[in-house]
Amino acid sequence: MQLSDRKWKIFNAIIKTYLETGEPVGSRTISKYADLNISSATIRNEMADLEEMGLIIQPHTSAGRIPSDKGYRLYVDYLMEEKEQEVRQQQEMLIQKQDKMETLLKQVVRVLANNTNYATMISAPRYDATKLKFIQLSVINEEQLLAVIVTEGNLVKNKMLHFRHELNNEMVLRLNILLNTTLTGLAIEQINLALITKLKEEAGIHSEVVSKVLDALAEAIQMDEDVEIYTSGATNIFKYPELSDSERASELINTFEDKKELVSLLNESMDSTGTGIQVYIGNEAPIRTMRDCSVVTATYELGEGVQGTVGIIGPKRMDYEKVVDSLKSLKNQLDLIFERD
Amino acid sequence: MQLSDRKWKIFNAIIKTYLETGEPVGSRTISKYADLNISSATIRNEMADLEEMGLIIQPHTSAGRIPSDKGYRLYVDYLMEEKEQEVRQQQEMLIQKQDKMETLLKQVVRVLANNTNYATMISAPRYDATKLKFIQLSVINEEQLLAVIVTEGNLVKNKMLHFRHELNNEMVLRLNILLNTTLTGLAIEQINLALITKLKEEAGIHSEVVSKVLDALAEAIQMDEDVEIYTSGATNIFKYPELSDSERASELINTFEDKKELVSLLNESMDSTGTGIQVYIGNEAPIRTMRDCSVVTATYELGEGVQGTVGIIGPKRMDYEKVVDSLKSLKNQLDLIFERD
DNA sequence: ATTAGCACTCATTTATGGAGAGTGCTAACA
DNA sequence: TGTTAGCACTCTCCATAAATGAGTGCTAAT
């Protein structure tokens, strides 16, 4: 399927105009379009062809045309290709380094939402590939231990552990040393059975505590996979009439509040792209409530394959160029911030 | 302003009916109301009186009546008075004890939102009156310390500290002992200047570290006052037509996402009621976007004056009885959970 | 191959005219 | 004197109809 030069120009004009106005665009509008001196009648003929190709759609007879999902896809693919080389002047967003990952991520989504006027989300870096930096067990009282786990990138987790028998300070001190000397610098996935057995052996009679700590560690990670995601600007969807009728808006905002589905989307995007930018148009995203939206995601890196994903959700007629630029710029900044860590 | 018995009955019938249907209620509807054998004409006369008193309103000529804010207020005041003694069969909500405060609070709002079909929020217990349980400084690398702060009720905070000069393990160990022996068991507000001076003295050349730790502590607390609030069920507002037009819904959900204003509301409610249940009707709440809502709050306790607030936001015609019951039940459970801590 | 012209289609807007619900008032009644 | 039936009146809420206008597809002329 090859588009003639003129067809391409017309198609482009339709997309551009529709992105701006959000309303079906007719042949006369296009005929007035700059550097295109053709009458509306001719354009009508061309549009009929484009429609037959499935690139544009008529919402009803005697209305203008709007891009189909396939049309958007073509446009975006072309756009991305073109962008590949071109390094544009990127608008700077002010992301400041933060001590705590959580604060940083919240800031990122907030700034991004304000900049783009779309809804945004970000997933915390995937934990199981991150290296352990530090473990600290502290005695809270006779039956409780607090385990603090710090990983590369200063992701801090804490988990409370309960024991039946009494804990004594000295033992905990020895365990701390043991755990740190053995585990520090390892990625979570490197902690295998052999290592665990060895640890337990060395811990002697306290092996039960060791296994509880490791369980806790695993559990803490598991929990994160499920939950750790931040969103912002959900209400931006009200700025786009095609999304803001009660029904749709409610569903969408619900998806945002729940976050569960968002996690799977971000994870999928991360797995499939490695480190690029990905666009889901309408039903391409695996979330039903987003069938009228487009989602653009980017994966950021935190050294050695450890990565998270940031995403922007808007109407299908979102400003893809701007969004892609914003994400690229953001991605660079994040990579930078994590680099000097 | 004294209501005759009959006027009261009519007023009550109007409120009850309106709470159910959400539509203006007319004289004929009331005349069919059980144990009230009066003709519609008579009721019309009474209603005219009630309207003059400002208790009910006519949205337009020849429509039924709806309660005014003043009317709701009267109803709620009476309701609360009546409830005071009566201990009703309270529906149980399943709140499970959790290790971490955050998890617990999130669970609470979720369950509450599901139970009531309104939007819910909860503020973490106020920090500055809580007693310190434990402080732990850990060396992360040459220039960074991780401070972990645990308070009563197992609220865990961590904060990363940066230093120019090198840190050594021994010093940190000594500081840990010093901080814990001195501060454990104290409420934050008890850490006064005298104590600080004494601490610094004992720390000798490491007094700089001490003051940084204390700063961090203060800052961590400050931050909490601003942010620590959890919400759930924001999308429930779409279940009530009077709140779910684009404009209103957008504003409301925004308020929920922002949380800043919610904090001030919850704090105010806590200050003014001590430990009871409070109802804000329409503009009584200090948040403009909630002018069409009612808010019911309850303060829960966590031993010795440490308290947080939980709130429910719904349309003005919310089911106050049910909401108050739910909150009371919840309050009891929370008090119980924290008690055995 | 392009374009002007025209008939035709459909969403959107504006008027119009009940139907229904509910009121306020008056006059009759117990 | 309090209560009620009756009635005219006032609104909102629909549904239907008519006018508008944007945009198309097709045909015939250039």
Explain what the structure shows.
The structure is a homodimer of 341-residue chains. Chain A contains eleven helices and ten strands. Chain A is of the alpha+beta class. The first copy, chain A, has three domains: 5-67, Winged helix-like DNA-binding domain superfamily/Winged helix DNA-binding domain (Arc Repressor Mutant, subunit A, Orthogonal Bundle); 96-124 and 229-339, GAF domain (Beta-Lactamase); 132-226, 2-Layer Sandwich (Enolase-like, domain 1), CATH 3.30.390. A five-stranded antiparallel β-sheet of chain A has the order 7-3-10-9-8, with helices on both faces. In chain A, strands 4-5-6 form a three-stranded antiparallel β-sheet. The longest helix of chain A is centred in the middle third of the chain and has 21 residues, at 207-227. The two termini of chain A are 49 Å apart. Chain A binds a DNA duplex (30 and 30 nucleotides) through residues 24, 26-28, 38-42, 44-45, 47-48, 58-64.
